[in-house]
Amino acid sequence: MSTSVKLKAGNAFPSLQAMLLDGSSVTLGEPKNGLTWQAVFVYRGKHCPLCTKYLNELESYKQAFADAGVDILAVSGDSKAQLEKHLEQLDVSFPLAYGLTEGQMKQLGVYISLPRSEKETDHNFAEPGLFVVNEHGNLHVVDISNNPFVRPELGALSRGLAWIRDPNNNYPIRGTLDY
Q1: pLDDT score at 1
Q2: Rounded CA separation 62/93 (Å)
């Protein structure tokens, strides 16, 4: 039986970089735009029509996330050329990063799949993952899936994050007990 490392809720989020189309690198989990938390959405890549739909839907929740103090970033293992081609199907204003390596995918603990054929894509790719990093750089919310059909519903997620961030609720990081 093989074992893989899964990130533990409450622990420091690893320092990982990916590339933006302007040639700069971005550190996953470091919020921008004056916000204090960041939701990092790992998606499969250009070949996945469900990813395209989800990213376009995420755009409609961008303000709800910002109102909750949560910046958003999406990243895949696609190449720059694949991301540029994918932009033809996307209508998003949040940052999209590319070049997530298989080693980085393993550090995140996401499921990794082999392409079914060269028509699908030319590299192993991450299955969907969501990592919400708080102002201390710790993993506050984590959700990973082994297929593209299971992802957090964005309305419930944005409302839940707003509730978690409300200081009146004093809601701790959940799922921290070892077993």
Answers
A1: 43
A2: 9
What CATH number is given to the structural domain containing 134?
3.40.30.10
For residue 69, is it within any domain? yes
Q: How confident is the model over 125-173, as pLDDT tens digits?
A: 889 999 999 999 999 999 999 898 999 999 999 999 999 999 999 899 9
Does the residue 91 lie in any domain?
A: yes
Residue 2 counted as domain residue: no
DSSP output for the chain: ------PPTTSBPP--EEEETTS-EEETT---TT-SEEEEEE---TT-HHHHHHHHHHHHTHHHHHHTTEEEEEE-S--HHHHHHHTTT----S-EEE---HHHHHHHT--EE--SSTTT-SS-EEPPEEEEE-TTSBEEEEEE-SSTT----HHHHHHHHHHHH-GGG-PPPP-----
72: containing domain:
17-163
Asked if residue 6 belongs to a domain, the reply is no
